[in-house]
Amino acid sequence: MARDLSTSNRIGAEDIRRRKGGVPIVCLTAYTYPVARMLDPHVDLLLVGDSVAMVLHGHATTLGASLEMMIAHGQAVMRGSTKACVVVDMPAGSYEASAADAVASARRIVNETGCQAVKLEGGVDMAAQITAIVAEGIPVMGHIGLQPQSVEKDGGYKIKGRTRENVEALFRDAEAVEKAGAFSVVIEGTVEAVASDLTLHISIPTIGIGASADCDGQILVIDDMIGMTVDRVPKFVKEYANLRDTISDAAARYATEVRSRAFPGRDHVFSATSGKDKT
Ligand code: KIV
User: Fold this and answer.
1) Residue 77, Cα to own-chain centre: how many angstroms?
2) Tag placement on the chain: N or C end, fewer CB within 10 Å?
3) How far is the CA of 95 from the centre of ligand 1 (A)?
């Protein structure tokens, strides 16, 4: 059985479920201990997204994520946070084949990280997996619309909800995820009006990314949001900071000072007498 998390003081999956239609739920991805510490006071939910494979490990798609990678980053984010509901993504290949695989992987993630919930991509096609994981007492967040784990199959990052057939499929997916017992669902890369209608249609909170301000919450990839992304920045991202330039400027100044021997200066070296040093 999965570890009992009921004694935790953190925001839990059921707290998130109860936020349907209320004050928007603030979510960000996090992958590391220091970033989790910085974000925890400000957010309701931290997602250890499989985007970590691209953002931190340089893979071309999220298919580069492994269970071990997700668990290691999940542990770091749990160490760095005390309040947020921490959700860890199930990587591609760890859950699609069968409900039994999905339960085994979800159990491993929860037992080895202590996170509050797992997330997996898919709608009607993954309903059996969601039902089985929820039956084990592990909360599940769904993920419909644009599903990054399927981009190779889909032939690229395609916005969803632009044809009648696709809109109908999205409604079927949202209903399936809700019926399977998910406590919330990410809607990614979906036409604004469709994401808004889906939010009205289902009883669990929708978390938008490239979706609609009407969703019950929003999520962004942290590195996108703080201007750390070195490749293409998606249209739906708002950069609230520009750490690319800050880091690049710092590295350039450091390089100049090392080459000119301006660094290390008097403040950054040790004298023979310990009392003279700053601690
Ligand atoms: O992996 C991820 O970061 C995600 C978010 C974009 C929702 O799934």
Assistant:
1) 11
2) C
3) 17
